[in-house]
Structures are given as structure tokens and as C-alpha cells.
Amino acid sequence: MQRCVDCQTPFTWKQINKSVWLAYKPITCPNCGMLHKVQFLSRILASIMMVGPLFVLNFIAPFAGTWSFIISVLLVLPAVLLLLPSIMRYRLA
Ligand SMILES: [Zn+2]
User: Fold this and answer.
1) What distance in angstroms lies between residue 36's CA and the mean position of ligand 1's atoms?
2) Ligand 1 centroid to residue 19 C-alpha, Å
3) Can you give the pLDDT at residue 22?
4) Do 40 and 48 contact (CB within 8 A), yes or no?
5) What is the spatial distance between Cα 69 and Cα 16, in angstroms, rounded to a whole number?
6) What is the H or E stretch that residue 36 is in?
7) Which residues surround ligand 1, an ion (CB under 5 A)?
């Protein structure tokens, strides 16, 4: 998980997840108040991780039954949500 670049305070999963869902809103370090912006590469990676599985699922949908499709979506989306904050990287604004 990303730490504050200045004081090494680790950001929480919740903080980073919130930042991602608010269109990559910058994170303020809770300890020293330094503003961190999402790195450009992380934005691209996050977009791929969110859109990629949906694209693949959409592609296999005609071959899978409705239920197996729904179950796949229910498995993939939480996995992406869980994983995303650990791959996001921030730099000082
Ligand atoms: Zn800090």
C-alpha cells in the first residue's frame, strides 16, 4: 500500500478507494497534511483494471448462461475493488 512520500505514514485502503471513486481525487496525508496526486500511470492501470474485466465478461456473455455471467461479475468486481488500492501510486502534488 502507498505511504506518504514525506513522513511514511501508510494510507488506508478506504482513503485510496475513496480517492479512486472520486475521479482520482488527491489524498491529503492524515499525519503531515501533504497533498498526494495519483500518478498518471496508475490512472491508466486503474482504468484498464476496471474496464478490462467488464469487456472480457461482455465478450463471453453470449457463451455463458445468464447466471454464470452474473456470478462472474459479482466475483470480478469486488476482486478489482479490493486489489485496486494496493496498486495505486501517488506522488507529491
Ligand atoms: Zn505525511
Assistant:
1) 9
2) 16
3) 94
4) no
5) 29
6) strand 35-38
7) 4, 6-7, 9, 29, 31-32, 34
Domains in the chain: how many in total? 1
Q: What is the mean pLDDT of the chain?
A: 91
Ligand 1 centroid, distance to 6 Cα (angstroms): 5
Residues of the domain holding 85: 13-92
**Residue 6 placed within a domain:** no
pLDDT tens profile 35-70: 999 999 999 999 998 888 888 888 888 888 888 888
CA of 14 to the centre of ligand 1 (A): 16
Alpha-carbon distance values, 24 to 45, 49, 53, 66, 68 (Å): 12, 14, 20, 33, 32
Residue 82, in any domain of the structure: yes
CA of 9 from ligand 1 middle (Å) equals 6
